[in-house]
Amino acid sequence: xxxxxxxxxxxxxxxxxxxxxxxxxxxxxxxxxxxxxxxxxxxxxxxxxxxxxxxxxxxxxxxxxxxxxxxxxxxxxxxxxxxxxxxxxxxxxxxxxxxxxxxxxxxxxxxxxxxxxxxxxxxxxxxxxxxxxxxxxxxxxxxxxxxxxxxxxxxxxxxxxxxxxxxxxxxxxxxxxxxxxxxxxxxxxxxxxxxxxxxxxxxxxxxxxxxxxxxxxxxxxxxxxxxxxxxxx
Length: 233
Prior knowledge:
- The chain is an alpha+beta fold and about 230 residues long.
- The chain has one domain: Beta Barrel (L,D-transpeptidase catalytic domain-like), CATH 2.40.440.10.
- About 30% of the residues lie in helices and about 20% in strands.
- A seven-stranded mixed β-sheet has the order 3-2-1-7-4-5-6, sandwiched between helices.
- Helix 2 packs across helix 3.
- The N terminus is likely disordered.
């Protein structure tokens, strides 16, 4: 009888470990599940990293955002690989084609850089700034948040803009989209609406399975206890 009571007490002590999930983790999982249902073609692992990076930015003192853009450069340029989510309403707003830099690759982007004049795309977490009318029309400036990875984005004029070479029919004929000088360019037909959705303090997360970046990104290494941004390695 005593042994039975001890066993019952032992099981009761284990139950919270299996069934009680920290609120922050539960909320993050709930949001990930909701957005994944809205966008069944997005890789949930990539989306999870994007949400984690945005949460880490907020934990480090940056303002929260209502919307999040995710670019999965591990996919070919001929596939819609840009998703824009409304985080408050948990809705998918856009799923679009997006170009990469001309020196990042042909149909598949494989090289990324933070160097000026590299004509390569950059990875990591960005925060959007203001809009302007430039040589590519209505455009959206971005601030790269990751030192050594994308923090030269503003100086390199890596902006979101519309481009006629982002064209599905053209891509079908030539086997890839046209390419930019490193900017995440989109179809002209959606550029203005998409830019207005993302302007002024939203987050953009550009992904590729680059081991060095994944292992060193401070926005993917938040301290689980304090929520602070980890120091750069």
